[in-house]
Design goal:
Elements (H helix, E strand, L loop, with lengths): L1 H17 L7 H13 L8 E5 L3 E8 L23 E8 L1 E10 H9 L3 H23 L15 H4 L3 E9 L2 H10 L12 E4 L1 H12 L4 H9 L10 E3 L13 E7 L4 E6 L3 E7 L4 E14 L6 E7 L2
Parallel strand pairs: 1-9, 5-12, 6-7
Antiparallel strand pairs: 2-3, 4-11, 6-8, 8-12, 9-11, 10-11
Helix pairs in contact: 1-3, 2-4, 7-8
């Protein structure tokens, strides 16, 4: 009994370290966010926005048309030839997400004895939450019945301007060419920044399509297993992309954009609150945060739909 009491007391001490007053300190919050981002596939490439309030407006400024005119020495351009930037705003509206974890006293004894409780909990939470957040980022849909995905509209639903229907074709150079040609020329000038994002299954099909070619490139794909992108644009397989879309529930989608065009807004006040249920013999850990995902400029995105994935 004395040994169990000692373990509980030690656990209480470490829980207090983890979340003093129920709120992560700024340094701890930043560490936890970094753990989240580092364990995801696409979030490390997104533009992270630290939100100091529930709503944040991001300004957009661009020149959407030509600004140069023929000039005349010592004469100002007439009013009709002068240019002004197009301005607009993107609103990030942080939505609450929560995770609750219950761990038995017995299952935590080893971690407690090794004095790694705080680190272990952060790593376990970050590993799972990063996957869940990336799932929400792409598959969020306020009309969904899923209790996570209903939180907000994700990138796949937000992309509506430039659409390439693929008619249930597998991913191939033809599909990627159509996607690239659909991207407005102003946004495909720097292809090094662009990424094609799709399901792993579609990436495998594309890899096989290239490997079947009786060329040096085909041999290289067979031997190396490395998947090359199209037109200098890397192709990334994202595990959370759906593969059950379409009438036959065997299709996926693809997004072409600069990942920096994806805003990941996260409220600074990440809470990890702790408690214990003595009767049940469990530690209770609840993590909550407020997040949002938005395109900085949605017209700079192309979405290919109805790509055969299964």
């Amino acid at each position: 009994m004395q040994e169990n009491r000692s373990i509980i007391q030690k656990a209480d001490f470490l829980l207090a370290q983890l979340a003093p007053g129920g709120l992560l300190l700024p340094e701890q919050a930043r560490q936890f966010v970094r753990l989240l981002i580092d364990k995801a596939v696409v979030m490390p490439l997104m533009t992270e926005v630290s939100m100091t309030s529930a709503k944040v407006l991001k300004e957009k400024v661009q020149f959407g048309s030509s600004v140069l005119r023929k000039g005349t020495e010592a004469v100002a351009l007439p009013l009709a030839d002068r240019s002004r930037p197009d301005t607009s705003k993107v609103e990030l509206d942080a939505q609450l997400v929560k995770a609750e974890c219950r761990l038995s006293f017995e299952s935590m004894e080893d971690n407690i004895e090794q004095n790694r409780f705080e680190q272990t909990v952060q790593e376990i939470l970050a590993d799972r939450i990063s996957l869940d957040l990336e799932n929400l980022a792409f598959n969020g849909d306020t009309t969904s019945l899923d209790t996570l995905l209903m939180t907000l509209d994700g990138f796949l639903k937000q992309a509506t301007t430039n659409i390439v229907p693929c008619g249930s074709a597998t991913l191939s150079t033809t599909v990627l060419k159509d996607v690239l040609k659909t991207m407005p020329s102003a946004f495909r000038m720097d292809r090094r920044a662009l990424r094609n994002l799709t399901a792993d299954e579609a990436v495998i099909d594309y890899h096989d399509d290239l490997a079947l070619r009786e060329t040096t490139l085909g041999d290289e794909h067979i031997l190396s297993g490395e998947t090359r992108g199209y037109g200098g644009i890397p192709l990334l397989g994202v595990p959370v992309f759906p593969v059950n879309l379409g009438g036959t529930t065997d299709e996926t989608s693809l997004l072409l954009t600069d990942p920096a065009n994806m805003l990941f807004g996260i409220h600074r006040q990440i809470r990890i609150e702790t408690d214990k249920d003595i009767s049940a013999g469990v530690y209770i850990i609840v993590m909550s945060a407020r997040v949002d995902f938005k395109f900085a400029h949605e017209p700079a995105v192309v979405k290919a739909t109805a790509i055969k994935a299964v």
